Amino acid sequence: MARPRNDRFLRALLREPVDYTPLWLMRQAGRYLPEYCETRKRAGSFLALCKSPQLACEVTLQPLARYDLDAAILFSDILTVPDAMGLGLYFAEGEGPKFERPLREEWEIRNLAVPDPNVELRYVIDAVAEIRRALDGSVPLIGFSGSPYTLACYMIEGGASDDFRRIKTMLYSRPDLLHHVLDVTAQAVTAYLNAQIEAGAQAVQIFDTWGGSLSHAAYREFSLAYMTKIIAGLKRSHDGERIPVIVFTKGGGLWLEDIAASGCDAVGLDWSIDIGQARARVGSKVALQGNLDPSVLFGGSEVVAREARRVLDSFGPGSGHVFNLGHGISQFTPPEAVTALVETVHAASRAAHRPESKG
Ligand code: CP3
């Protein structure tokens, strides 16, 4: 199977030469787009949207119709995996995700089982296949999952949390139980990502949104170790093409070298780190993805252009950079700010990729 016509994203992840820096945005299909809100209304709810392969495909393509983005990302949610494990995901209006049956008792934890992604998560796998067909070889499709630690935060807290009191209590009082949750979840994530790859995902990203809330030692033991195990269990090529893996730990800048040693092809960065310094630390080992503060998109097109150029200049010449935000795009982002961002990244990065400017 040939690469997509626009393969800059895959080339940059593999640190192969490109003519300009590719970009996509975390949460690129979302509530800042009026057409997304319209489809979501038609679906009835966010979860109904996720569970319909046809509507998930429709919203996946919406940002690509508007902007010259270099990759599509499967429209779904990280919490579909614990939902498939029987926890009962729902969204309370204005309160974010919640579980009907969070993990509270030891027996509930001992009963956890690995779902078959082709059965319990069939709707996601069908969406991947449908999106690949609809993309028709134009840009690559990114599959994703949450990290075991990030999923466990929601599974144990029962929803969003400010202090992670329940999971951290378990971490320090019953580490054996937390390790069991993480072990089963890591097996579930491995099977789920492999099923996405077999259905057509051309790169995968592990979202470790809450790994950064851990101590230096706990991060390695309870988050990074499980992501490393997942990566070791992934199909690394499909249809003759390498499937790059991106690890994004929000707040993980201090631990870059260790993340880069996880076996991933690229490390996602939030905006708290200078991308040039990050490159100096790990640049010959992995590609880097990031890392514009999503709030820059509130500053008007000139500020967007200036700050995007700052990230590009900091990374410097040569391949190995996928431009992105440092976290998901805000629902309050003016859509025209994204137009300015895409134009700036594509135009301003060309000079850094001329053959004479070596990285
Ligand atoms: O990047 C993409 O465009 C792909 C789709 C995607 C969504 N969620 C869609 C979504 C991805 C990759 C995610 C990942 C996700 N989901 C994470 C990890 C990344 C991160 O942002 O930290 C987390 C922690 C979740 C759990 C989750 N789902 C939260 C915290 C929320 C927000 C709740 C709220 O009301 O703001 C969701 C809902 C969600 N996931 C939305 C979207 C577009 C908004 C739902 C809506 O339409 O109401």
Quick overview:
This protein is α/β, with parallel strands linked by helices and 359 residues long.
Q: Helix and strand layout, with pairings?
A:
Elements: H1 8-13, H2 34-43, H3 46-51, H4 53-66, E1 72-73, H5 80-87, E2 89-92, E3 96-99, H6 106-110, H7 122-135, E4 141-146, H8 148-157, H9 165-173, H10 175-199, E5 203-208, H11 216-232, E6 237-238, E7 241-242, E8 245-249, H12 256-260, E9 266-268, H13 275-282, E10 287-292, H14 301-315, E11 321-325, H15 335-349
Parallel strand pairs: 1-4, 4-5, 5-8, 8-9, 9-10, 10-11
Antiparallel strand pairs: 2-3, 6-7
Bound molecules: coproporphyrinogen III (CP3).
Describe this structure in words.
The protein is an alpha/beta fold and 359 residues long. It is built from 15 helices and 11 strands. It has a domain at 45-291: TIM Barrel (Alpha-Beta Barrel), CATH 3.20.20. Helix content is 47%, strand content 13%. The strands form 3 sheets. The protein has a 7-stranded parallel beta sheet with strand order 1-4-5-8-9-10-11. Helix 13 (275-282) links the parallel strand 9 (266-268) and strand 10 (287-292). Helix 2 (34-43) packs antiparallel against helix 4, helix 9 (165-173) packs across helix 10 (175-199) and helix 10 packs parallel to helix 11. The longest helix is centred in the middle third of the chain and has 25 residues, at 175-199. It is globular, with a radius of gyration of 19 Å. The model has no long low-confidence stretch (mean pLDDT 97). The site of coproporphyrinogen III has 21 residues, from strand 3 and strand 4.
